[in-house]
Amino acid sequence: MGNQLIAPSILSADFSDLKSDIQMVNESEADWFHIDIMDGVFVPNISFGMPVLKSINQYATKTLDVHLMIVNPEKYIEKFAELGSDILTIHYEVSKDTLSESLKAIKSNGMKAGVAINPNTDISDLEKYIKEIDLVCVMGVFPGFSGQAFIEATYERCKAVKELINKHKSSTLIEVDGGVTLDNAKKLIECGADVIVSGSHVFKAENPKEIISKLKHV
To answer: pTM for the complete prediction?
Structure first.
C-alpha cells in the first residue's frame, strides 16, 4: 500500500514533554498531526484548547488536522484558522442544523472542511452534503477518550461512506479515528480509508516512528 495518510493523535502524546513528541512526528513518515479539541460537554472529557494548539503550530512542520469535539463549533471557526489549522473537522451530531453554513465558513477561512460521525449516526445523513465535505471522519469508537477498543462495524461504515462518495463523484477523503492499530489498519484501507488516525498505539509504543512507518506501508 503506502498511499494512505497517517495522522498520529496528539491526545495520546506525553504532555510533560510535548515538544519532543511533536519533533518525533515531524521526523517520522507521518503526514498530519491529528489534534482533538474536547469541551467536556459534547464528549465526557476535556482535552486541551487554543494555547496548546498555538504551541503545537509553532513546532509542527506537517498538516494540522484539528478535530472539534465541541458544541457550537461555528463560534470558533475563525479562531482555529488563525491558530494554524489546515483541516477543521466538526461533528455532524452538533452541527446538523447549520452544517452547510459551517462548511462554507471553514472553507472561507482557508481550511479544508471535515465532518465527523459517531458510530451510531446514519451514514445516509451525510448524502446531501457529501460534495461540500473535504473529509469524513468515521469514528471507530465513541469519542472522548483515547485507548478504547475498536468497534468492528466501522469496516462496513467505511464501505458505506465510500459508496456515497463514489455515487456522487466526490473527492472527499475518508479518515478513521479511534481504536486503529496495525491489526486493523490494512482492512480499514481496503474498506476505503484514506487517512489513518492512531493515538495510543503510536505514542505508547517502544518505537513510535517504527509504528508510524508500519502504518504507512501496511
So the answer is: 0.96
